[in-house]
Amino acid sequence: DQQVKQNSPSLSVQEGRISILNCDYTNSMFDYFLWYKKYPAEGPTFLISISSIKDKNEDGRFTVFLNKSAKHLSLHIVPSQPGDSAVYFCAASGVRPGNQFYFGTGTSLTVIP
Amino acid sequence: ETGVTQTPRHLVMGMTNKKSLKCEQHLGHNAMYWYKQSAKKPLELMFVYNFKEQTENNSVPSRFSPECPNSSHLFLHLHTLQPEDSALYLCASSPSDSPGNEKLFFGSGTQLSVL
Predict the structure, then answer these.
(1) Is the distance from CB of A59 to CB of A50 less than 8 angstroms?
(2) With an 8 Å Cβ cutoff, are B90 and A44 in contact?
(3) Which of the four, A22, A96, A110, B93, has the lowest number of CB atoms within 10 Å?
(4) How confident is the model at residue A94 (pLDDT cuts 50, 70, 90)?
(5) Which residue of B has its CA nearest to A31?
(6) B103 in reach of chain A (CB within 8 A)
(7) Separation in Å, CA of A106 to nearest CA in chain B
(8) What single DSSP character describes residue B42?
(9) Is B85 helix (H, G, I), strand (E, B) or coil?
């Protein structure tokens, strides 16, 4: 059973506009959430994270919002740039023992110049 | 030099072949991981090693055999694979295997095709 879901396989956004990528999770024990970015032929790279004690974390153009009651998080990219075109993975952790990271299936973002 | 290096980048093998994937991390981390990424599926954790000891085996078939000789190197030995094992195999490392607020650092992966 998939514990982290990204229901939008792809998203296209105009350059300069906001990109919003969504992620839902089912396990209320998750307490740490991350977003990874992946270019073709490269491994995923860490983008931004948020702890369950917060509802927002910002890093430059990237902001992650966490809604614990809805078990939902989102990544906002403002303004979107063509170099942001990549696959974005949401991940969650916090279930003990083992403390694995659970990943979503990814959302492919295309930023149109 | 990148933090986590994987070789080879691409591998094509027959079902009766034996091959190995190699991973090396230069970050001084204590935990190393193998993940499998199949098309349209989430990244699946296969194995975790912490301080060279295997701490997680996620019900992976025995045709996949991991080896961790030290905290910097991780191998995945492959034998008698099936076509459905074709996927991107990613190695990752983290400071420890109880990440909490830590994060995984990934290599570029090995794209495996089993014929």
Answers:
(1) no
(2) yes
(3) A96
(4) confident
(5) B100
(6) yes
(7) 7
(8) -
(9) helix
Strands (E), B51-95: 53-57, 64-70, 73-79, 87-94
Distance from C-alpha of B72 to C-alpha of B31, rounded to nearest angstrom: 9
- Residue of chain B whose Cα is closest to the Cα of A108: B40
pLDDT of res. B99: 58
Q: For residue range B50-67, what is the model confidence (pLDDT) as tens digits?
A: 877 887 777 899 999 999
CB-based contact A46 B109, cutoff 8 Å? no
Pick the closest to residue B111 from B45, B28, B15, B13 (CA basis): B13
- Collapse the DSSP code of A84 into the 3-class scheme (helix H, G, I; strand E, B; otherwise coil) and give the result: helix
Cα(B45)–Cα(A31) distance, rounded to whole angstroms? 19
Interval A50-88: pLDDT, tens: 999 999 999 999 999 999 999 999 999 999 999 999 999
